[in-house]
Amino acid sequence: MYWIQERYxxxxxxxxLSQVTNQADHAASPAADGPVTxxxxxxxxxxxxxxxxxxxxxxxxxxxxxxxxARLTLDQLAKAxxxxxxxxxxxxxxxxxxxxxxxxxxxxLYTYVPSKxxxxxxxxxxxxxxxxxxxxxxGWRARLEFLAGERWRLFRRHPWVLQSNLSRIPLGPNxxxxxxxxxxxxxxxxxxxxxxVSLVGAIDEYxxxxxxxxxxxxxxxxxxxxSYEQHWAARASFWGKYFDAERxxxxxxxxxxxxxxxxxxxxxxxxxxxxxxxxxLAPAGSSD
Length: 288
What we know:
This protein is mainly α. Helices cover 53% and strands 0% of the residues. The chain has helices at 8-11, 23-28, 50-57, 74-88, 95-102, 106-109, 116-128, 140-157, 173-184, 193-224, 228-233, 237-241, 249-256, 267-281. It starts with 7 loop residues before the first helix and ends in a 7-residue tail after the last helix.
């Protein structure tokens, strides 16, 4: 599910994901006047409404549920936002752009969502609904392998999700379903609860890092037209002119032993090592 080649992990040390800024939402928002503190996604923090955001996620304030005159549903808004993000990136998502996608005026969308913050939460919860649930017959390890695969494919289909702050992931029903399924792999485990939560976090952060590195590489190829192989071929002279085998003996040893050959190992290799560690912490893993 993850890497095309394990070599992408090396590039994660120097790869950085540029923060997305979007001035269009701020300019179009009814509350845009005055100095505000802005998030990396370009929405003013003062425009977001946590309580309304939660209600929207759980459809408590869906205008379509309150009367026959509502033209749109929250699902339609989220679907349109996802379509824009999938094809043009998260930076292209704005209230104005999504309104155009739906054929309505920007101001009308503010009757549904107060800002891009809530729109993004709806979008993320929507795509997390694509994650299949693990079968109850699976043991703890097979369950985590299956769910890790589902999450990886989600990140590959929707790489823009990785541009959001997933440490503040929306508390939506689909998101919580996905997390609940991961926690359930440890049901009956002898591990302390704090370790269970930390281990689930470690698995998720590993997947996020791998998928983000791959997405950055693909973005680089698209933006420059230079492939990974072409990039390094253009720097091949380094090894003869500058590489010092005495200073970097392990590089040389690993190279001589095939350590830098094209690697068929995918994300499963790293995931398996994490699961091996869980086995060490709790030899029985989880009661099956």
